[in-house]
Write a structure and sequence with these properties.
The chain is α+β, with helices and mostly antiparallel strands and 160 residues long. It has 6 helices and 6 strands, in the order ααααβαβββαββ. Helix content is 46%, strand content 26%. The strands form 2 sheets. It has a 3-stranded antiparallel β-sheet.
Amino acid sequence: MMHHTYLEQLSASLQRYGLEYSQIGEIIAEVESHLQESGEEPLDAFGPPDAYAEKRVTARERVAGGNWQSRTFRATAFDEMIILREAGKAGWELSDVAAFALYCRRPWNLKEVRQWEYARRVGLNRNAIVAEMLTEQWEPCGNWTPFHYFKRPIGPRSED
C-alpha cells in the first residue's frame, strides 16, 4: 500500500472516531516520520489503518480512566445507521446524538459488554413516535429533530 493512501485511510478512520484535527495531525505526523526513517511499509509497521486508529483511540481513552470507554463517531444522516449497526455489534451503546456525531460508550470490562441494535424514526410528533417504539421494547437514546433514535440490547450480557 502506498504511504499516502495509508495515511489518508488512517486520517479518515481517526476522523470517524471523533478526534480533533490537531490530534489527528499529531498521529499522522508520527506515523509519517516513522515510515520515512524506517523505510518500512505501513501495513508491516502499523497494521491495517482502521485497526491502528482503533488502537490509538483506545490508548487515549485508557489514559482518561473511568469504567466506561467513550467514543464519538462522525456520521451523516446517510451513513449513521450503517455506523450504528457496526458499533452496536462491537458493544457500543448510543448515549446521545448531535449534528454529525454519535456519542457512544461501552464498559472497559469485557464481561459487561453487550451488543446493541438501533432504529431511527423521522417525524415531528416525538411523543407518538416514542410511545410506539416503547411498545416494541425500544428505548429512546437521542433526538436531533426530526430524527429520533432508539436502542435495545441484543441478547444477554457476556456475564449473564
